[in-house]
Amino acid sequence: MNTFFSWLGNRDLDNMEQGNDAAITSLVLQSKTPFDKVVILANKDEEKWTNFEQFLKRKLKAVGRPCFDIKVYKANVENPIDYSAIAIETEKWFQWLSSEASTLAINLTSGTPAMTTLSVLYGKAKDNVIFLQSSPKNSIEQVDIPVDFGRAYFKSTSSHIAHRATTTPFIQNAFSKLTAKSAVMIELVDKAQRIASSEVPVLILGETGTGKELMANAIHEASLRAKRPFRIVNCGALSESLIDSTLFGHKKGAFTGAHKDLPGLFEQADGGTLFLDEIGEMKPDIQVKLLRALQQGEITRLGDTKVIRVDVRVIAATHQNLNTLIDHGNFREDLFYRLAVGIINMPSLRERTDDIPEVVKQLTDQINEAASKHPHYISKNISESGIKFILSQAWPGNIRELWSTLNRAFLWTDSKVIGEKELATAVINRKISQQNNDVTLSFNDKVDIAQLTENFQKKYVEAALKASGNVKKHATQMLGLKDHQTLSNWMKRLGVENEK
């Protein structure tokens, strides 16, 4: 299939109204090879688009050329010299058109200089693109652009990197809100920065409260889409009936209460990023529509048949094990692999203990600042013993649980210094349920059940001692043992040493 692409210029419209040819008309009429598809982008004069389509169809039909697939599309560009917006539209359309066409011909005559420049830049990256232009007298020619932009860009950036190496370094501000003093977080932020600069979908995994949304926002802010919209939706917070309309929009009358057309988050995030939190909660039928949006860049509003093209980078997150959901038929495997290109595994708080003192300081500052205007509030700090207590805890709810605990501790005391005692009182007591996972064995499998049992007991004894600050009396109560002598006997049998 041979495809023609152009921006709609003022001269194209002015000449049409006088019945004369301009660049677009001349090129599609005089090209050596007829075009099966004509795609034209415009950002103004929408009331004239249908007339221009009909004008072009009549011209082509008169000379026996294909005239059925001709369409003027609205470009999300408010300013004709807005390079950022034009670049997003150009890249989106070139990616789609070049993938389906044997030859994609690009008009360099119509539109603004910004539109022409970016058409050349993005067009040179495609191996099936040719460039056409029209003279003031409407003669046409194919343009050869010999510049290797990739090589020129590499040379320029290499020179820039060499210059940067001898000057003062700078910090990637987009990730400044992520505390990264531990080795695991430093490595993770470096990985996230690399992912941010690409256009691949991102899947952020991690326990509840590890900062997945903060990471998603940082990736967006460090990407080329930073100045475009960033939209967020919690897939687990919406009912099955609402999630479709929320993501993809709806037409008036699509359901009871749909009093007007409403664009969904995909349309709202066009050119930018959509963050799908708790993607594991998404129902299978919505997963199918999401997969289509990712694969083809197309959506359809609820109650409509019209296909809408969108350019959205999707970042998804979940605390669930998606492989388990796939095994149970609750999550599409093809969607998983489409999302899991750039994978970020957010570490738990207990895996990044080097970050905890700084995290505590940041949270403490936020609590004090939020309460500072209250006339009776006393600003507080965490003591060294308090930090040690925090470091000894498991924090299954991670930063979110730590935040709630600090808020309770600050609320329940007027002391200027918060220590181990105040924090211990503020920690929520949880009843750890007995695990009831099925155990399966094959005929020739062998296990040392006594050793498995001892390993299990040892882990819980060590965890109880750590959480209690190695206070046997409290650890005994946590484990439900008779007395601390019983705990001492267990420790001796299991080879557990008391550090205190």
Give a written overview of the molecule:
The chain is α/β, with parallel strands linked by helices. It has four domains: 2-143, Rossmann fold, CATH 3.40.50.10770; 173-347, P-loop containing nucleotide triphosphate hydrolases (Rossmann fold, 3-Layer(aba) Sandwich), CATH 3.40.50.300; 350-426, Helicase, Ruva Protein, domain 3 (Orthogonal Bundle), CATH 1.10.8; 449-494. Helix content is 45%, strand content 13%. It is built from 20 helices and 15 strands. It has helices at residues 10-17, 23-30, 49-62, 83-100, 113-123, 149-165, 183-196, 212-221, 240-248, 265-268, 284-296, 322-327, 333-339, 356-371, 384-392, 398-411, 420-426, 449-467, 472-479, 484-494, and strands at residues 2-7, 37-42, 70-74, 103-107, 129-134, 140-143, 202-205, 230-234, 273-277, 298-300, 307-309, 313-318, 342-345, 381-382, 417-418. Strand 2 (37-42), helix 3 (49-62) and strand 3 form a beta-alpha-beta unit. The longest helix has 19 residues, at 449-467. Residues 157-172 have low confidence and may be disordered.
